[in-house]
Design goal:
The protein is α+β, with helices and mostly antiparallel strands. It has one domain. It is about 25% helix and about 35% strand. Strand 1 and strand 2 form a beta hairpin.
């Protein structure tokens, strides 16, 4: 099964391709200078940080359930309990 462990060491371009081909888009939030797209890949939630000012992806990372951004997600949808 494809998940974060398969994705984390790939170059950015390949991460984007894997997410496009195998992940499900969940939602998007605004967070400071980024639009963050949340995807479900296997059992892992992946965040894609899009910088609109530069028309670029700054970072792709595993969702941190302890981060304060979780409030933005939980205000809009109910995510399953994350470890």
């Amino acid at each position: 099964m494809i998940g974060w462990s398969s994705l984390k060491n790939l170059p950015l371009e390949k991460k984007v391709r894997v997410l496009y081909e195998h992940a499900a888009f969940v939602m998007a939030i605004r967070y400071y200078k980024h639009k963050i797209n949340l995807y479900l890949l296997g059992k892992d939630y992946i965040e894609v940080f899009v910088n609109h000012k530069h028309a670029s992806i700054d970072k792709i990372s595993l969702l941190d359930p302890q981060h304060s951004r979780m409030k933005f997600y939980s205000d809009q949808i109910k995510l399953p309990a994350l470890k």
